[in-house]
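User: Run a structure prediction on this.
Assistant: Running it now.
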Amino acid sequence: MTSIDIALVDERDSGWERHDPLFRVYLHDAAPGATGGATATYDVRGADVLQVIDWAESQVRTTDATTYAVALVRDEWSPGQSDMRRGLVWLVGIDGNTGTALDEREADALARMIARRADPVAVPAADRMPPLR
């Protein structure tokens, strides 16, 4: 596992907050031991991150060859660009179709995505999501 840094901070250092996050969920239909493959992508709004993880977990329980990743969708001004660009902040996993991991953190994220097939995240009952309609 890669090193994790935890630091005490002043909670007043943020300048804004949002209460309507947009999440993007990637479901990768991958071979055992891999994360890449055909990908179904969903945007989820009106839920918090635990609910989104629960929904993603419920989708991968149907097969042992699926991995998932969850990202926060952000629209920001791109440096050197004159328009807003959509970007992703990875919260759980990374894009399973990245190919070869570029660094130790990516390799670790991909390995943990595969491990979640057999050892899913436990989400409390109060945060469980209804199935996709």
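Strands lie at 22-30, 37-45, 66-77, 84-92.
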